[in-house]
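W.,

You were right to be curious about this one. When I first looked at the sequence I had no strong expectations either way, so I just let the prediction run and decided to look at it fresh. Below is the sequence, 163 residues in total, followed by the output.
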Amino acid sequence: MAIRTMRYLPDPVLRQKAKRVSAIDSSIQRLIDDMVETMQQANGVGLAAPQVGVSLRVVVIRMPGEEPMAIINPKMVKRAGEREVTEGCLSVPGYAGEIKRSISVTVKGQNRQGKAIRLKTTGLMAQALEHELDHLNGILYVDHLESQDKLHKIEPEAEDGGM
């Protein structure tokens, strides 16, 4: 496993539509392992392959207190409801924005063993899935901003507890 180099806006790979994975081989397994390690090192909830410079339809997600999971060739099956959330992105560091996301989503794809999976989710998991699937289509959360007023710079926390 290795930590991969993150790609940041305006890197063109972040704007490309990622290609479908045709075979889940050792290179895909290594990509998944590297993506999990990279995501955990950056304290992220999710990571899409384009964020590490690989234009393939692979995402990893780790909900707090749970094991990380990989979804290969994910596809949005259903969205329902709408809510406003504050969202950030490892590829747009130092900023957070207020955008609209679905209340619940259903996604299908394959796990790392190639088995078909279907996830019906709400809350943070639904938000993370929408966010990561957007990455696979060359869309970033900043594209969902209603106005630039909804984007805020995040001040790094002082190491001395803010004193």
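Here's what jumped out at me. The CA atoms of residues 45 and 62 lie 5 Å apart. And, maybe more interesting for your project: The domain at 12-153 is CATH 3.90.45.10 (Peptide Deformylase).

Coffee later to discuss?

I.
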